[in-house]
Each structure stands twice: as C-alpha cells, then as structure tokens.
Design brief:
Blueprint (H helix, E strand, L loop, with lengths): L1 H14 L8 E13 L2 E12 L3 E5 L2 E5 L4 E7 L2 E6 L2 E6 L3 H12 L14 E3 L2 E9 L5 E5 L2 H27 L30 E9 L1
Antiparallel strand pairs: 1-2, 1-7, 2-3, 3-4, 4-8, 5-6, 6-7, 9-10, 9-11
The structure holds zinc ion.
Zinc ion binds next to loops.
Length: 214
C-alpha cells in the first residue's frame, strides 16, 4: 500500500517532465544501473516508454534514452540486460511478469519520432523531500520539509531561553531593582506541534513522504 503510494507519487512527478506531444505507451518501475555518456547512472524510479523515448525518472536525476540506441539482449527473471551506445545497463524490476512486459515493450518496433525532439540524455534534478500529513479526523493536510522540524526545535530552545530571562527579570523586579525593567522580555513564539492537525488539533494523522522537483 505504502509502496503503491510512492509509485503513484513518483509517476505524477515524472509525467510533469514529458512533452505535450508525447504519448505514454508503457510504464514500469524498477532500478536502472549502467553507464550513459560515460557517467555512471543508477537509481530506483519510474520508466515511461513514450512514443519518443524511454524516460527514466529516479531520485535526483532523469534520463532520456533514445530507442535507436537501446539494444536489449537478455532477460533474466527480474532483470533486463541491455546496451546503450556500447555501455551495458541493467533494469531490475520487482516482479518477473513486469520484467517480461518491459522486455516485450523494449524489443518491440517503435515508430521513431520524425519531429525534432530535444534530447537531453542525463539531467540532474533538484528535489525537496517533504512530509505530508493527513488528519484522519477532519481530512486536513499539511506539509513540513525535513528542515522544518529542526527549526521547530530551535524555536523551542529559544523559548527556553526567553522563559529563563523573563523569570530572571521577574525575580529582579521583586527586589524593586529598576534596571531589571530594562531586561529584554522576549515575546514567547508559538511552537507549532508538527504532529498536530492545524485545523482540529487531533494527533491522529497519516504520514507520507512526498518529493517535489524544484
Ligand atoms: Zn484535523
């Protein structure tokens, strides 16, 4: 179930990079491992076979393989072994049937696009990872990125500091000491509990990791 969600998420991210006139012919999930343009490439992601290219979208990178240069030679259970411009690559998929389907697709005759297609064989992409929470009580969704819990922790520390200094100034005030009135009294920042629904305050929420391209 979680894995299915992750797949859908990756797929939704990937299709944003497809061109308008690209037709989505075949989709499969797995690992790509090989050398492309002398660069070692590997990663878990989604493979989208379009009418123009084999688009590989992994964490942190995407790759456009031109069908003209893809030579798929062997299939071993869940592994497809091929060659791209003289470099060996493997595609591993979670299920044997998927490997067979992917193999059939890759070895099938495809119409090569006649209109110019801007081939960029390997491109690094910047991604941010966020945590998405969905309240199981009211359905509210909220996000926080990996940096935010740290900032939240920082704010908590700051509050500890201001509590101490406020307490200090109060104590000083009790003695009637005037300069104490000039001690900084920090406004207490509201610390948002990231586990708490901002709408209804419930702590019952589903947690999911989502990736966005930036
Ligand atoms: Zn709620």
């Amino acid at each position: 179930m979680k894995k299915e969600k992750a797949r859908v998420n990756t797929y939704n991210q990937a299709i944003k990079h497809l061109q308008e006139n690209e037709t989505n012919l075949h989709v499969f999930y797995g690992d790509f491992n090989g050398k492309i343009n002398k660069k070692r490439m590997f990663g878990n992601g989604v493979f989208i076979g379009t009418n123009k290219r084999l688009f590989v979208y992994t964490w942190g990178a995407m790759l456009s393989l031109n069908y003209i240069h893809i030579e798929v030679s062997t299939i071993e259970k869940k592994k497809i072994i091929g060659n791209y411009k003289g470099n060996k690559f493997t595609i591993s998929v979670p299920f044997e049937e998927e490997a067979q389907e992917a193999f059939n697709f890759l070895t099938s005759k495809k119409e090569i696009a006649t209109d110019p297609f801007n081939f960029e064989e390997y491109r690094k992409i910047k991604q941010i990872v966020e945590t998405k929470r969905t309240c199981t009580v009211c359905g509210e969704t909220w996000y926080y990125d990996k940096g935010e819990p740290m900032k939240n922790f920082g704010e908590k520390m700051e509050n500890v500091g201001s509590d101490a200094s406020n307490m200090g100034s109060d104590m000083m005030c009790c003695t009637g000491c005037l300069p104490a009135a000039f001690l900084p009294r920090h406004q207490k920042k509201e610390v948002r509990d990231l586990n708490e629904c901002p709408n209804c305050g419930s702590k019952a929420a589903d947690k999911e990791t989502v990736v966005h391209d930036v």
